[in-house]
Batch of 2 targets.
Target 1
Amino acid sequence: MIGKTPVWVLPIVALVALIWIVPLLGLVIISIRPMAETTLGWWSTQEISFTLDAWTTVWDKFPLAYAAWVSTKIAVISTLIPMVMAPAAAYAFHYLSFPMRRVLLLIIVNAFVLPNQVVVIPLFLLWRDLGMIDNMWSVIIPFAGLSFAWSVFLVKNYLEDFPKDLIEAAQIDACGPIARFFHIVLPNMLTPIAAVAILQFMWTWNGLLLPVVFLRDELPLPALLARVQGVYDNNFDQVAVAAIITTIVPLAIFVIFQRYFTAGAQTKTGSKE
Amino acid sequence: MTSKQTSGIGRRTILGALAAGTMLTPFGFGAAHAAEIEGELVMINWLAGAQGEMMEALQADFVEKNPEITFRNIVPTSSGDTRGGIRTVLLGGEQADLLINTWPAFRQELLDAGMILPVDEAWEENNWSDLLADSWKDLSTIDGKNYGVTYTFGDRSGIWYNTGTMEKSGITPPETWDDFIAGFAKMNEVGITPVSIPAKIWAHAEWFESTLLRVAGADFMSKLARHEVPWTSPEVVTTFEKLAEMLKADCCLDPNTMLASIWRDSADTTIKTGETGYMLIGMWLNTRAKQEYQLEPGKDFDIFQFPAMGMGYDNQSMVDAKEFNVLSSVKNIDAANAFMGYMLTADAAAIMADYGLASPSSAVDPSIYDPVIQRAVNEVVSAEKVHFVLGDLLPGDLVHEYRIQIQKFLQDPSDETIAAAVQKIEDVANSAY
Amino acid sequence: MADVTATSVDGSKGPPIGAMRLPRQLSQSKAAYILLAPLLVFFGVSVIYPVIETIRLSFFEIKGLAPAKAVGLGNYFKLLSDENFLRALRVTFVWSFSATLFSVMIGWALAMACALKPRETMVFRVLIFAAYGVSEAVVGFIWLGIYRPDYGLVNGILGGLGLENMQQAWLGNPDTALTAVIVAYVWTQVGLPLMTCFASIQSIPRTYFEAAYIDGAKPMSMMRHIVMPLSLPGVRVAIFINLLQSLKAFDLIYMLTGGGPVRSTETVGFFMFRESMLNFKLGYGAASTVVLLVAVLIVSTPLIAQRTRAVK
């Protein structure tokens, strides 16, 4: 944006963000105070002491490094797939005419209303028959498949604002539809692709239901850390540690990829302005 | 999903003969068999947190005594109710030898689906009757056959209090219902709310169940669980009326607060801060009080058995328990039996005691337990009859409706509400069985 | 404006326009299927197959591990006369509508504000997105502490401000429980519209602003005439994702209220999860999923049809 921004913008955003942060701050504080102090609330001031016990316990008790590696493999592959295929699909639905176009789009988009548990048992039986239990692809395939329900819609929405003149220009040439996609449209889709990457990575990294049912020994991080909390005892300080560890990585991805949001702005202005 | 099976049919028969032949003393069952028990033992083990650690320790100790054994744990995890995860594992056809089970309704479900085997044979061969009283065997018996070996239990009719609170109010732990209610006035006078009922999800049902036990006895409860008597029975109505008596004597906080609380909140105010006087919950409160409040059992807090009502069932107790079921997909039956037997030994009990869990085995010296657990154990062991928590006996949607109707009752303990509540539960029960 | 007579990528000149009409139709379809094929494989296995299974399951009565019993449309009749399901539909209507409305409005407003100062607001945006990333169960626990009647943060602050009469058992009062849960849920959800709208705004070409600036427009007016309309894709995506996710939400509600008090926070998502995963009545749970799917299909079909009109 250009021009002098009003002074009240930053303070208001800061105020809102502060309200937002309070519960998150609580999470961090619970992880560094002894449980006896935080039972009545992490803000209780009767006795204040800090300890890294929860952190060291989680670190020692759980094979975090390996689980993180499993999580990385699963999340990265599950993210790359829609990053490539969703734009292709969105392009096809938006610019190409082919039979069953609307029906297919309807089916794909409506699939988003399906909760994960619908997928769990049928796929579990299928993977079991195929001997794919404890194989990371048993998780990656549904992660990718389910992602199309929202990622195609997302990319398509951003496409709708795409200047049509560029496409028309390319159509006059002998550029086939696929070449057009790769050379003209795709480079301008960096914004929605980045958005897809951020969301898909976060959801697959955090994913619990599918990995916990389909995987046995090759557990990703959240599945492993689900064991921290007992049925009757709380260990909430350790649970807080687990939550913080798990959430840091998708946040890092967010920071990295959101840089690409502006990439679309550069190329969209057309070639020779 | 590979399971190592090292012994063929022939070997197993020989081992079985050996087991039958060598009649061992009730203690130290595992020792003489150490050389023969081998292979992989697969357990569906959903315990997490502290109890998970405990099971790890027990398995490690067993392996020390039986070095040829390796454990493989199948760990189902799921949101909300562990049984969902277990069912998924079983539906998927995964092979396992033992299952940890704490829901009699689930045991029935497994039996109906042909997924568990009776343990009577092993029971006879290993003389587990010397270690486990018949009342435990009865808990896991269905139609004359026994399907479970109970390894731990808890008293669910124990009312917890902070010793300081009692002193402050000038009360001693009441033995009769009338004394119990009479004490409320004294507590209210010094600003203590007598009873904390956490009614958000399930813990409020404890009050209903222990009261029903006093009013109608264990046999009636069993009939109710099987829906052989209706929920509109006078015994059920009387139970609600007794609870209404309690509510009208100013026992509790306002209904909204009760509905917003879970047992941990009640524990905080009853045991930690002493703002409320009593709460009725299972033995796991002991662990919380020791670990999170850092209080001493017996000294800072204690437990007394649900007061007597003089209707003939005062020497009975509600209990919860965990047992092992042998699955029909079992491959290493000898190791499975050996482990179940091990769980009844004094060594196993000692490990469990560290984690605050009581063993039902008579091989155990109660002095290994802290005073609160000792008291609870004595109450249960000396009870004339015990009954499993009703909530774990009923089918899923019935339990849900049952808990919600008790919530409605807490909101408004009038006769109309009681009548409507029991009728509603009865309606749902009719379609649930 | 791009040069209309530019040569194609490889430098050759294309055939005359008229001659391209028929081959272009075929190659468009072929191209589409080539672009869609891998997606359809993944989608087919992970979605179509389970949906067909779910529909099949909905015609059976399954209680836990017991063998399935064929009941035809029995589950559907039971569902439509089940007062708990109907109540869940009503609760869901309020829940989804308010949660989506508030989270999108707040997210959008924040996105516009942040777009004014993208670098400085980076930390805030990360933290608000973190609220979206933390697992619902953990969020539930945090908000339990906030709403606790005796030692919770909300009542504590009210007390500190001298407003004791407003103190409540927020999660235990049937009148306030749903609102309380919605507030907690919106807290988690704002991160999404914030991100998608921000992304939309960031991808607006700078030249639009330059042109407006030259015309003498002030930032607030640029906001109204450039940013708001051009951030609509982000808004649409946010509404789509937030709305449909709210229909599925379970963990947060379970932690905060368990569906109570007296079922006042039981949404359809909660109902579905409870029936399928907790009560393990797979047939009944499947039927409720199918009903929800059909309902959403009915609503979305005209919307999608409208937005996928003529392709050039």
Target 2
Amino acid sequence: MRIHERRGWASAVFLLATSLLLAPAYAVLPQEMLKNPALEARARVLSEELRCLVCQNQSIDDSEAPLAADLRVLLRQRLSAGDTDRQVLDFLAARYGEFILLRPRLNWHTALLWAAPPGVLLIGAVIAGIGYRRRRHAVPAPLTEAEEQAVRRLLSNDSPDIKES
Amino acid sequence: MIAELGHFALVLAFGVALIQSTAPFFGARRDDARLMATATPAALTQFLLVGLSFAALVHAYIVSDFSLLNVVENSHSSKPLLYKITGVWGNHEGSMLLWVLILALFGALVAAFGTNLPDRLKALVLAVQGWISAAFLLFILTTSNPFARIDPPPLEGQDLNPVLQDIGLAIHPPLLYLGYVGCSIAFAFAVAALIEGRIDAAWARWARPWTLAAWMFLTVGIAMGSYWAYYELGWGGFWFWDPVENASLMPWMAATALLHSAVVMEKRDALKIWTVLLAILAFSLSLVGTFLVRSGVLTSVHAFASDPTRGIFILAILCVFIGGALTLFAMRAGTLAPGGVFAPISREGALVLNNIFISAALATVVIGTLYPLALQALTGTVISVGAPFFNLTFVPLVAPLLFLVPFGPLLAWKRGDLKAATERLMLAFGLAIAGAIVAAALGGMTSALALFGVWLGVWLIAGALSELAARIRLGGVPLGDSLRRAAGLPRSAFGTTLAHAGVGVTVLGVVVATTWSSEAIRSMKPGDSVDLSGYTVTLDGYARSAEENFDETRVQFSVRQGGALVATMTPTKRTFAERQATTTEVALKTTAFSQLYISLGDIAADGTTTVRLYWKPLVTLIWLGAVIMALGGLLSLSDRRLRVGAPRPARPRTNAVPAE
């Protein structure tokens, strides 16, 4: 559940024709959008990689918080100034900490995190492989005397009535 | 008075749970039939008592009894009746009571319908259920009592969070809890079997229906949550890799792997270790999910109000049950006799591969969700692990698995013929390519990955149908014979086909809706128009009204295609006075699995509205696929073979007639 309520800001007075509804503004407002469509597309993609720092687990593309709006504007300013995607992300991470990056950077802190998916797959495959090898080389338990007799009887075709054994 | 009765019933239920956890356990140890027989009435009584308690809480909400703290914090006298009732589980205490109610319900179901189970196993299963019940009842009574009174009682409640006042939110938690708690039965079966020291094909046959039921509910519950997020949150997203969403996905994945593993165990007495571990894992992940949501360690919009005592208590429960089960497993692992041998290319081999891939994907989700917490606890560094990480790691793990799915059912047990299976799937392969070409033609050439996704979706559907066709020898024998074969097939065969095809439908929906959707974000005034994907959407005007507990502004749009009016859509904004909150209701127009989606932003003083308009092709397939999967599960569940139980001695014929 996402909590859209915003405690503490004044609610609006409802009048039929002229009402100012301080409603949550859903991400990327038309006035924020850049004129250059290529830049705007990059901005949208990058927005999904950036966390809204005051929200509960939303990207700035999805969030309606004022900070998210500021970050969206800042992002677009950097893009318009000519930064590459990596530079924009590095700039924001330098300012706000790695917490803002929704895709964790690859460094010693996150080595285990990034190694886990292929690692677990590998471990699983190895375990299955070992299990298969062990099963293949497993010797079945030796037969008891009664079982030996039954096998001999079956294989010799003397008594066609299989039900007996 | 009724609240006190409910509270007392809860305490009594705790007492009964204590009995249920000890008497049958000792009965099973000593082979004492009378002690073992206490399990069934104990389970039924516990269900009755918890049911009474829950009914008392529901009653308090319906009559808006504001002397109860829980009702004050989460209800309002002017709320519609439906949301008064569903508000019972819209908070921590009430939802915890619902959790325990469903736990008691499953225990009662095993007690009542588990007649095919041998006595010792049944007694032990119910005993383990009793332990879990007792632990959570203690948790509720000591830290999360929904019947706590407030003195003096206020005149009015604080209203339920408006976002929760929605039919989707009414259904989503109960379905999910049915799934989470259903996993506890599989867990109880596993622990009971470990205690008894006997794990074999019969055990797998008895445990499977309960796992199947839990899996079904989880599937539908997760799909419901996803659909609710899609239409409630206003920008058409359906999965956010939110930690609490992951908390529901993790037991679902474990349950899926468990289902498939149990089939191997039932048929071939193999994969015992996998099956038992997965049964323990599924419920453990349910418990971990409970912990994550209610302890306050997570930053998530899903999280309930945090309280450290609760977190510690649940963590303790977690450690006891998971640690205990794994210790028991370690002690008893030696008694698990190795089962049937099989070649790597066989149905067992395919299911081992299935287990490996699902486990890897599961581990990815688990580690991705818990890593930030662990890192922060250990080193103090704060990082985020969000959707980009999961999309990058989860999808490449699941895609190869999905490619292999149609091969599995076509391979024989013990030693399969891969060449024959491939030949049977050539038609499906071709159909999938045709599907991808159609997608490229209709939607435009985009990334190869998207086209591969479409290929994968059609491949899954066609592959599932191919297997069914092969079974009834469609095309090889006269049609009448094929149909007769189909009528004779066990229901679980259709269940498999439906479930696998359902996965394909969901994959198709996800890929098409994410790749080929279009959006338009504009500021519009009455009379403005926007063009999107062949539709022309015009803002007509505004209307305002006052409802039970909110004021509503409706904005009317007319949708035209080729000049002709095809629909009128009315997204709204609602302001709830009590909580000073505003929600937006989107307007949806569904045309053959695709949807036109209008969501409102700001409405400014001069009547200009920020409008977000989306065209989402084939988006409803995402949830339709989940429903199809669940239907497959239901079909399998109704299979007669699952109800075969322990053999009874044949009744002697009383009037034998001598042969003449």
